[in-house]
Please model this.
Amino acid sequence: MNTCLLDLGNTRFKWILRKNLGKGPVRRASYAEGNPVETVINALSQGPVFDRLLVSSVRSSAFNAALQLRYPQKIQMIRITDSELMPLAYEDTSQFGIDRYLA
Model:
């Protein structure tokens, strides 16, 4: 199974393809002005086909929803939730980026 790991930042995004236990190169790009969602879709469509898309995102809900519409059967959004094991100091946990955990 090919899994694409996608990290959507505020100004740039990066992704990597994992095939079975191996991985490909990390790719990076900046969002084009106008339609940043299309920038991501175009970048992903130029690489190998993937069966699953795992996404970490600090982008808006509208941005994430548009991406989910494009890949409805493949996408899984990774989210942060507050837990007793690792509590967050943020009053609003939606403001805490998943990328802090992925580093």
